[in-house]
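Deliverable D5.2: sample structural annotation.
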Amino acid sequence: MSEKKQRCVLLATELMGIGGAETHIYELSRALIKLNWKVVLVSSGGILADKLVEFGVIKYDVPLRSKNVKSLIPAYRRIIEIIRKEKPEVLHSHSRIPAVLLYRASKKFMIPFVTTDHARFSNTNLLMRFMTRWGDKTLAVSDDLKKYLLENYSNVKEQNIYLTINGIDTDTFKNRSEEKPFRDEIYEELGITTDKKIILSVSRLDKTAYLCVFELLSIAEKLHQTIPDSRIVIVGGGDVFEDVAKKVLEINRRIGENYIILTGPRSDIYRLCGVCTCFVGCARSAIEAASCEKPVLIAGNGGYAGLLNNETLDFCLSSNFTARGITEFPLDKLLNDIKYATTQFEETKSFRNEMRDLICERYSVEKMAKDAIDIYYKAICVRGEYYDCTLTGYYGHGNLGDDSLLLTIIHNLRERIPDLRICVLCHVSSNLSKYLKNQNVIIKSRFNPLSVVFSLKKSKSLIFGGGTLLQDNTSTKSLLYYLTLIKIATHFHSKIMLYGNGIGPILRKVNEKRVKAALELCDILTLRDKESLTTIAEMKIQNPKIHLAADEVLTYQLPGQVYIDQVIKNHGLEDEKYVVISVRKWRKAPFGFYDNLIAALTMFCEKTKLIPVFTVMEITHDEQITQHIASKLPGGRIIHYSSEPSEIVAITSRADYVISMRLHTLVFAALAGIPMLGIAYDPKVENFLVSVGCKENCIDISEFDTNRFVDLAIARYHTENNDKEKQRQLVDIEIVRAKQNAEIATQFLNDIP
């Protein structure tokens, strides 16, 4: 298998000193490197930029802090040189000035452009709002920043804003208070004895982030009186560092000892967070301290939000652990909260442990990196770059089986190739768009010739995702559509795969020749049943590699028990025994079939006392006939596939019996171990039942007889439990075979240059 191509991103910011946004970039860069991305960092330099070189980041120092046009022009020219040399596929700005330059560069080179908003800008006048540039996609590190963007910048749209996190390395940021050698080393470095309680504050000391430190200093003398065995440690640097240093010197002189320790900027915050007693600050540093299981007091330039606890947690989560939206800074409350945090340490232990778990789950650097990569690919698709594959099938027509196929294929492929760029040709329905909204999938209309051609032109491969697409049992028109897609893809030199497909029936000789010619243009076929394999063999297909697999929906993840219970309760079925019935209108059904089916279902339900619950798997072919049949059965209920595929799956998985013309209703029943009986209007229904050892559980629609149906249905209902273990074993075998579809497709996609 060929090695996966390394992607490249250019990250830009004004300065890589010590700060929340800078640390975000630092951790993001390291995580991207681990995920096989090439990272190019452009900034005015700084301690964190130098450290990133050790991890393989390519660093360029470019003056990006000045708004002066004379400085911006050479900076822009330098960025152009870097882009030409490094050839990044995404440009990602983390601050205002670089965003202006990268925006212009993205237009020049047609490279996708992404921005991250870390904080509110202090200057939002009309001119600055006009000059500020946001990317094709923008990441906001909190809900309130997303709101801020929408309220202040008309050039950024809500659908292009995505939330991310300030991810941290939770393996590094952990409680080290009990590690005596580690603790002793920090205390010795700070010049204090190990019996002292450390009140730690970390922030940039500039005009946009100094308030917390200044207010902490204003109560320092009272803190010394109230908690004499404490010491305040302040970490950070910036424009007001000298002012802070003077104030610290004055306070220490009045107290008569080195009570406040000012360290300046540091890159080893994890060491101080690991041993401190409590933390005062906000944003990323507050999350890092909470990861170390320390009491955290949320204080920022906006105000003081209080001690992080169950009462303040929701607000802190929504504002990314800042005090944005708080306009007060009550010093008495700050003083009392610090006293409580340092003296009642054990009382907060349970909450602190829970916070550690929450941060590990929701604020990891891995999640932050995946958020960024997801946005990179969304931006790439917006700019019209190529797709790794175009998926086609009978998607978006309100057919639960086919839509479940699509969702399952995307899930299984993304599980193996997380950054796979997928375009889907489908009927663009609101329901399907809703499902795919957060899947990083581009949707194109299968009925728009221009969309189809351009999608295939930009795609490395065409994948027929599940179903029985190459057949003329439904119509020759649909067959010709799919054969045309193969020819177009071949014209653009795209690789072609049939993924878990059924083949046939092909009734007309001319169509058989067409299918044979088209299949010989394909590169690989995975087939969902032995009969399709036989059909291929009879055609004597020469070129593609052929594998026998199984229906992809067999890998569908059934809903959890809690969800199933809730769905059953919502439909009033929690105390009921019921049979799920799934029918469709079939133009080739024999005369009188549906009247005979009504009579048979009525007799079956009367004898078994099962409530008939009808599931409408597709509105077009199922709705009218289902309503007609359900109206004839006492107590008949109808459940439609309209918004949530998992709802009908949940209903089916709790049934006592399933009778179905629809293939995928039977698949869901098999996955849940529910006794079933199939009515074969198409060979695929019988083929599936044979594959899971239920050959006797099938009646051909052309041979339907009311009495025979009732006798067989009742017999199988009463004896099915004896066959469950054998059926489960055969279903498990089919599931293993179905998983081969994604495994073979993964190799197929990775081997495409």
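Annotation notes: The longest helix spans residues 706-750. The CA atoms of residues 306 and 312 lie 7 Å apart.
The annotation will be released with the project's public dataset once the embargo ends.
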